[in-house]
Specification:
Largest sheet: 7 strands, parallel
Order of helices and strands: EHEHEHEHHEHEEHEEHEEHEH
Helix content: 40-55%
Shape: globular
Distance between the termini: 21 Å
Length: 314
């Protein structure tokens, strides 16, 4: 769907998901411009290889709406993929900073897109963190009560995106993955399974710091979802869930052991049970892309292990 005329602004393009989004964009032949305060050249080199030189880095702040608009105008940006955000631990530790980055920063991105009048659509990262526990909040007048500041901020952005469609005709698609795993995932509590897969590939021991049953989404699927959502525009402010494969932490470890039999007994599990974040009204991505086919957990683990054994830069 992409061609040389398409130029995509990717906020948070140096991050875990952002790097794989860039890989998908490069594969499709689209130009990419990244806004990110934390460059990760080594990650880009490992995932993008020589193609990393084709990505343009723009000096702009997420909170500088005028600066973002200048980037859009200068590079003739046609689409936006907005990924930049602080994760749960940072938002819990400093809610005010989390609000500035996640809510005000997202509003800045939408506003810059609106002012430019050349953005065809925006895809952005929502999260299963908007969903609370079904029982704990059953007496609440609000359908979804997020259990964290991070979830509340993501929910706020979904509402803001809806307003930009209603009043400004700016189309958007929010992608809600659950726990994203795969090569180069190294930050946050739920990075544990990805780091365990890396440890298994390297013949090392590892301890995953949480228990519980959650949905897992392989990173290349997630990247593909953001790119398709950006290019295959639908009117409205659409929100879709990825069809995460649900598994306990123990089942994830068994998947690693199935790929790396020598890892049996080398991966421990020790920590709290994390929220399940169950959606009361699922919105599967197949409603947007009927041909969607997710990567199975076993295959995703296999590809993660292969990455650390051999690398993927072709």
């Amino acid at each position: 769907m992409a061609n040389d005329a398409a130029c995509v602004l990717v906020t948070g393009g140096s991050g875990f998901i952002g790097t794989w989004v860039l890989r998908e964009l490069l594969t499709r032949g689209a130009r990419s411009v990244v806004v990110d305060l934390q460059p990760a050249p080594q990650r880009w080199q490992r995932v993008l290889g020589e193609r990393a030189k084709d990505v343009v880095c723009a000096d702009a702040s997420l909170l500088d709406c005028d600066g973002l608009q200048r980037v859009i105008d200068k590079h003739s940006v046609t689409h936006v993929i907005h990924l930049a955000a602080l994760l749960t631990p940072a938002c819990q530790a400093d809610p005010w900073l989390g609000c500035q980055v996640n809510v005000l920063g997202s509003t800045s991105v939408f506003e810059a897109a609106r002012r430019s009048q050349q953005i065809r659509s925006v895809s952005y990262a929502s999260s299963y963190a908007v969903y609370g526990d079904e029982v704990e909040h059953c007496d609440s007048p609000v359908e979804n009560i997020p259990p964290t500041f991070y979830g509340a901020f993501k929910q706020a952005v979904d509402l803001i995106a809806d307003q930009y469609w209603r009043h400004c005709n700016l189309a958007s698609v929010a992608i809600r993955p659950h726990v994203v795993y795969g090569p180069e995932r190294d930050q946050g509590l739920t990075a544990g399974p990805s780091l365990a897969a890396r440890a298994a590939a390297m013949g090392e021991c590892y301890s995953i710091g949480y228990t519980g049953c959650v949905g897992y989404d392989y990173v290349e699927d997630v990247a593909r979802a953001f790119v398709r959502a950006a290019f295959e525009r639908t009117d409205g402010a659409t929100v879709v869930d990825l069809p995460s494969e649900r598994a306990t932490t123990e089942e994830f470890v068994r998947a690693i052991e199935g790929v790396v039999p020598k890892a049996v007994g080398t991966i421990r599990i020790d920590g709290p049970e994390i929220p399940t974040n169950i959606s009361p009204t699922p919105r599967d991505i197949t409603t947007l892309f009927p041909d969607w086919k997710p990567t199975s957990l076993l295959e995703g683990v296999r590809q993660t292990v292969d990455f650390y054994r051999t690398g993927v830069t072709s």
